[in-house]
Amino acid sequence: MNYKLIDSLIGILSGACMAFITCQTVPHDWNMFSVMLLGMVIGMVLHLVLMFMLVPFFGAFEVMVPLHIIGMVVGMASGMMATMNISIYWITLAGGGTGWIVAVSVQHSNKKLVSRVS
Known about the structure:
The protein is mainly α. The chain has helices at 2-25, 32-58, 60-83, 88-117.
């Protein structure tokens, strides 16, 4: 039960962290397509950093799959939202929400896969 809570917290915190850092680093005067690609790259770099920190404690599959999805989606979305002059508070909140949705979705799909194999 504790791992389900920790996985959700990792998703929320990593999504919020990725959104905040992406929003702070992308230039706000570029067009959306360029910032989307740059945000994806920033999200994937942050994914690698967080992966190396969290995998020894929580396991590779439980960390790598959600962080990869969160890094791509949140990086692209927060980069595009930064060009639309949305408040950094709302961008960070959206990143955390997206991270939570991805973490819960991966948990749900893992439960379905385990029940099919058993």
